[in-house]
Design brief:
The structure is a single chain. By secondary structure, the protein is an alpha+beta fold. Helices cover 36% and strands 19% of the residues. The protein has 2 domains: 91 residues, Ubiquitin-like (UB roll), CATH 3.10.20.70; 328 residues, Creatine Kinase, Chain A, domain 2, CATH 3.30.590. Strands 8, 9, 10, 11, 12, 13, 14, 15 and 16 form a 9-stranded mixed sheet that branches. Strands 1, 2, 3, 4, 5, 6 and 7 form a 7-stranded mixed sheet that branches.
């Protein structure tokens, strides 16, 4: 049943709608629309100049209209007179193929046509820093192993409680909050959901965490590696496939009786194994989307951190309940992809998982050998497993070579993404850094 946004506003005392879309770089773009004007906007959309955002457009392109999806509407818990609603970009009556939410919606439809309904949960880690972003906000958070630090989480209780209260009020089913492995780092978990719902919640979560942090005089960041020497921000994603979307789902297609074989011993069905196989086969190319910034590779290829472990993979391997690999299967019926980081675009993250998984199901892909070793201590013993990209350029090249994944994500999207990300890489390598001055001034 479609929500009437004008009625939603009248019933809840909403004065403004924030019509929001997400660009190729994960930036959230919005227009603040008075509730009195939402009737026309619900049908026609709010107008944007696509070139002014990170989309592959020019100033000559016509208006891009962001058409709100009423099913996604959320009343801001910290400013109840405003409601946020995710939108689908349209231009001259046609959906904008490169727009991330449209990419995801198309892949969800493709999966549904095969009877596959992907559900996911994300673990979005973040740091609470000083307003300048240069220091951890809590001067007492200095433990060598700060993970689950009781005192540290309570010193930031007001921020964590406020965010968790909002998730409770919104019905997200939050179930745990903790101080993570780096000083100043936190994680908050809520229940898994259909891929589009998870992506919308993930987008809103980032917006909410930053907004609440700012109201407390702090700065929240999901940057993959904001502090040198500390564990980075991951965005581990738990994946399963069901027989129907939403509350109608009854059967987990990934779940199976414990049997013989590398995946069956872990309670993962043949279909789950093939979906995992697709993830493994496309992992190097996926990294361009799951780890989309220059900074991402300072997390993936980091030296040992202050806590003793990076908690990030650098090799394309999978295992059982073991956090040192790219994929772990912690229990029957699901697996955890530990590759993504905090910079991942919430919509493209879900889209590329579905694209790679569908490829695996279609080809009955073999996930390869299961490794039940500590990759941090014994990874050198693994022979033949692919390495994850060393930098953003390697990742972009891997994505460009993976014709099947590019086609699944959509040629228009893939071309736009590669063009803009290569421009970003060129901007980075042309930048003169302090490192160059320190190390090569006298060479």
């Amino acid at each position: 049943m479609t929500t009437d946004l004008a009625k939603f506003a009248a019933d809840r005392g909403i004065k403004y709608f924030m019509i929001s879309f997400t660009d190729l770089f994960g930036g959230q773009r919005a227009k603040l629309v008075p509730a009195q004007a939402i009737g026309d906007m619900q049908e026609e959309g709010a107008g944007f100049a696509g070139f002014a955002t990170y989309l592959d457009m020019t100033p000559a392109h016509p208006d891009m209209l962001a058409v709100p999806d009423p099913a996604s509407v959320i009343q801001l818990p910290w400013k109840p007179e405003v409601a946020w609603v995710a939108a689908n970009p349209v231009m001259e009556g046609e959906e904008v193929d490169q727009a991330p939410r449209n990419v995801l919606r198309r892949l969800i439809a493709a999966a549904a046509a095969k009877g596959l309904h992907v559900k996911t949960g994300v673990e979005a880690e973040f740091f609470l820093l000083t307003p300048s972003g240069e220091e951890i906000s809590d001067p007492y958070d200095i433990a060598a192993k700060p993970c689950y630090d009781q005192q540290a989480v309570m010193r930031r209780y007001d921020v964590v409680r406020e965010i968790c209260d909002y998730m409770l009020d919104m019905g997200w089913g939050p179930y745990q909050n903790d101080h993570e492995d780096a000083n100043g780092q936190f994680e908050m978990n809520w229940e898994f959901d259909d891929a589009l719902a998870t992506a919308d919640k993930h987008s809103f979560f980032k917006f909410m965490v930053k907004s609440v942090a700012e109201s407390h005089g702090l700065r929240a960041t999901f940057m993959p590696k904001p502090i040198e020497g500390l564990t980075g921000n991951g965005c581990h994603t738990h994946i399963s496939v069901w027989d129907a979307p939403g509350a109608a789902s009854k059967t987990n297609a990934f779940a199976a009786e414990i049997g013989e074989g590398p995946t069956a011993e872990l309670g993962l069905s043949a279909q789950g194994s093939a979906f995992l196989g697709g993830i493994m086969q496309h992992a190097q190319a996926m990294a361009a989307i799951t780890n989309p910034t220059v900074n991402s590779y300072k997390r993936l290829n980091a030296p040992v951190t202050a806590s003793g472990a990076t908690w990030a993979p650098n090799t394309v391997t999978w295992t059982g309940n073991n956090r040192t690999h790219m994929v772990r299967v912690p229990g029957p019926g699901r697996f955890e992809l530990r590759l993504p980081d905090g910079a991942a675009n919430p919509y493209l993250l879900q889209a590329v998982i579905i694209a790679a998984g569908l490829s695996g199901v279609t080809t009955n892909a073999d996930p390869g050998k299961r490794y039940d070793i500590d990759m941090y201590a014994e990874g050198h013993k693994v022979r033949g497993a692919a390495k994850l990209p060393l930098n953003m350029l390697d990742a972009l090249r891997a994505f460009d070579r993976d014709k099947a994944l590019k086609a699944a994500m959509g040629e228009a999207f893939s071309a736009a993404f590669l063009k803009l990300k290569h421009e970003e890489w060129n901007s980075f390598v042309s930048h003169f850094s302090r490192w160059e001055q320190v190390h090569t001034l006298d060479i």
